[in-house]
Amino acid sequence: LNRASGALLTPQASAVNGPPWDAFQATGTLFRSVVSVFQWDPAAREVTVKPVGLSRFAAYEVRSVDAGLLGFATGAELMDDGVLLLRSPTTAAHLLVLTVIPRMPR
Questions:
Q1: Spatial contact of 44 and 85, defined as CB atoms under 8 Å apart
Q2: For residues 35, 10, 37 and 72, what is the CA-based torsion angle, rounded to 10 degrees?
Q3: Residue 46: what pLDDT?
Q4: Is residue 49 very low, low, confident or very high in pLDDT (cuts 50, 70, 90)?
Q5: pTM confidence score
Q6: Is the pLDDT of residue 80 over 80?
Q7: Please, are residues 52 and 46 in contact by the beta-carbon 8 Å criterion?
Q8: Which among 3, 16, 22, 30 is least surrounded, fewest beta carbons within 10 Å?
Q9: Is the pLDDT of residue 12 over 90?
Q10: What is the pLDDT of residues 13-35, one digit of tens each?
Q11: Are 10 and 22 within 8 A, CB to CB?
């Protein structure tokens, strides 16, 4: 991440009454972004994360480091609709890798 840019995707964390989830996006190139999502409130069941700065018309592979391939979407779909993440029984963190692919799979 030597030359990456970053963006908060949730409100700023706080020691008191902070958001139930924190999400941060690091973008190193136009072709790949990494989204880190951390659950702080164990009662929170889900969060929708909306990446920023993607190419609206590009196709993206959405991959979870833990769960593997989640699917494919356009940059517009990812930025407008987001990625729904559910509370995990094994971890309080999700790591997503968004990679531009040549075209949307059929």
A1: no
A2: -50
A3: 93
A4: very high
A5: 0.86
A6: yes
A7: no
A8: 16
A9: no
A10: 676 777 888 999 998 876 899 99
A11: yes
Distance from chain centroid for Cα 53: 12
pLDDT of residue 2: 60
Enter the tokens of residue 75: 């940059």
What span, in angstroms and rounded, lies between the C-alpha atoms of 94 and 28? 19
Q: Say if CB 99 and CB 28 are below 8 A apart.
A: no
Residue among 58, 46, 54 nearest 94 (CA): 46
Residue 59 identity: A
C-alpha distances in Å from residue 59, one per residue of 17, 21, 71: 37, 27, 11
- The answer to whether 14 and 32 have CB atoms below 8 angstroms apart is no
At 60, list the tokens.
């993206």
Q: Which two tokens stand for residue 84?
A: 């729904």
Number of helices (H) and strands (E) in the chain: give both, helices first. 1, 8
SS percent in the chain: helix, strand, coil, step 5 = 5, 50, 45
